[in-house]
From TrEMBL:
<protein>
    <submittedName>
        <fullName>Exodeoxyribonuclease III</fullName>
        <ecNumber>3.1.11.2</ecNumber>
    </submittedName>
</protein>
<dbReference type="InterPro" id="IPR036691">
    <property type="entry name" value="Endo/exonu/phosph_ase_sf"/>
</dbReference>
<keyword id="KW-0479">Metal-binding</keyword>
<comment type="similarity">
    <text>Belongs to the DNA repair enzymes AP/ExoA family.</text>
</comment>
<keyword id="KW-0460">Magnesium</keyword>
<keyword id="KW-0378">Hydrolase</keyword>
<feature type="domain" description="Endonuclease/exonuclease/phosphatase">
    <location>
        <begin position="4"/>
        <end position="248"/>
    </location>
</feature>
<dbReference type="InterPro" id="IPR004808">
    <property type="entry name" value="AP_endonuc_1"/>
</dbReference>
<dbReference type="GO" id="GO:0008311">
    <property type="term" value="F:double-stranded DNA 3'-5' DNA exonuclease activity"/>
</dbReference>
<dbReference type="Pfam" id="PF03372">
    <property type="entry name" value="Exo_endo_phos"/>
</dbReference>
<dbReference type="InterPro" id="IPR005135">
    <property type="entry name" value="Endo/exonuclease/phosphatase"/>
</dbReference>
<dbReference type="InterPro" id="IPR037493">
    <property type="entry name" value="ExoIII-like"/>
</dbReference>
Length: 258
């Protein structure tokens, strides 16, 4: 079973890129972030024509998350995180697919930091961690994947010293990510590549992709029983080099059958 995550950076504007990637990569499940489209503008028919079912949680101009499945039933179990009824951002959707609970998230960026946006990021992170702990305690197989907007360590950033004041790399963000993982989750990419420089995001500016000046901010966290099934993990780095593409590359894991 192949599960992927991809921050598409505008699903309608970059639909040809998404459809090409789905055709070439054929993930069984694809978690998407930054749809930047309200629910009624989600390209359901194009996704269906590509062979995928979908659930989505959209929002005009910003945010937005979706889960796509190929030849697999999808049962939505949650949209939005618990803990703040006033939070209107479309940043989390969750479903049961093939016996696995899959949470797809787009964690707030948090810049400029410090400030209200950074405070919102840390509050959201806290709510997410509480929900993650409940999922872990349920004993079910769980995958939590998406754009975490968190650089875990210096290995995960090109010239990390330039990021020390950024909301993605501030100590509070790194502490929050580590505390989340320490609940009992496995960072799939790092498990299989403990010392390798791997990036998932390259800015549009200063030829970042060409220079491989990137960040690793898109992550797969696996519950213990899913971790035992982990066969492979990687980044479709070449997709970042396509015409009119997102600034993120798709990330994926392959799991053995239960």
């Amino acid at each position: 079973m192949k599960i992927a995550t991809y921050n598409v950076n505008g699903i309608n504007g970059r639909l040809p890129v998404l459809l090409r990637w789905l055709e070439e990569s054929t993930p069984d499940v694809a978690c998407l972030q930054e749809l930047k489209a309200p629910d009624e503008k989600f390209p359901e028919q194009a996704i269906k024509d590509a062979g995928y079912n979908a659930i989505w949680h959209g929002q005009k101009s910003w945010n937005g998350v979706a889960i796509l499945t190929r030849n697999l039933d999808i049962k939505e179990t949650r949209r939005g995180l618990p803990g703040d009824p006033d939070d209107t951002h479309s940043r989390y959707i969750e479903a049961e697919v093939n016996g696995i609970t899959i949470g797809c998230l787009y964690l707030p960026n948090g810049n400029p930091a410090p400030g209200p946006k950074f405070e919102y990021k840390l509050r959201w992170f806290e709510r997410f961690a509480e929900h993650a702990a409940e999922l872990l305690a349920s004993g079910k197989p769980v995958v939590l994947t998406g754009d975490y907007n968190a650089i875990p360590t210096e290995l995960d950033a090109y010239k990390a010293e330039r990021w020390v004041e950024d909301a993605l790399f501030r100590p509070e963000t790194r502490v929050a990510f580590k505390a989340l993982v320490d609940q009992g989750w496995t960072d799939a990419i790092r498990k299989l590549n403990p010392d390798k420089v791997i990036y998932t995001f390259w800015d549009y500016f200063r030829n970042a992709y060409g220079r491989d000046a990137g960040l690793r901010i898109d992550h797969f966290l696996l519950s213990p029983d899913v971790n035992k099934r982990l066969l492979a993990a990687g980044v479709d780095r070449n997709v970042r080099g396509w015409e009119k593409t997102s600034d993120h590359g798709p990330v994926w894991v392959e799991l053995a059958d239960a």
